[in-house]
Predict the structure.
Amino acid sequence: MSEANIRLLDEDTVVISEGSTNTEMYRIVSGKAAIYFDYGKDTEYLVGVLTKGRCFGEIGFLTGKPSPFSVVAVTDLMLLGITADTFENFISEEPKYAVSIMENLANTVFAMSANVNMLKEEMLKAVADRADERRVNMINNSLLKYRVSGLQGSPYFSELASHDKEK
C-alpha cells in the first residue's frame, strides 16, 4: 500500500461522524480509536476501542450508506486509508484483513440486533403495563414489519423473497 494513503491524526480527532457517508475504510497502523453511538450527546454510548491492525469504516465504505456510529482517535493515530481503487490490492496483499472485515460486520450486525431486541422488550413491557393484549400484539407486529423492511434491497432479502415464492 502506498504511503500516500497514510493519515496521521491527533488524539480526539473525529475520523468518521455518525450519519456521514465515508468513501474510505481504515486500518489502524498505530494508536487507538473508539467507536461511539451519539458521540458528543447526552446519550453518548461507547461501543468499543480498536487497536493496531484493526479495520473500521467498512459499513459506509461497502454500502455507500451513512455510518451508524462515530469513530474518534483515543490517542494520536496513524491510519491506512483504503479507497475503492485500493481495496482489491489491500485484500490481495493482506488476505487476513478480509476475515477481519467480515468479523467486524458480523459483530456490528449482532450488536445492533441485540440492541433492537432489548429495545423491543422494553417497549412491549412498558406498553403491557398500561395497555391491553390487542395493543401489545399490534406494536409487536409493527416492530416485526420494521425489522423485515430494513432487509429490503439487500441480497439476503432477495434470496428470502424468492425462496418464499418457491414454496
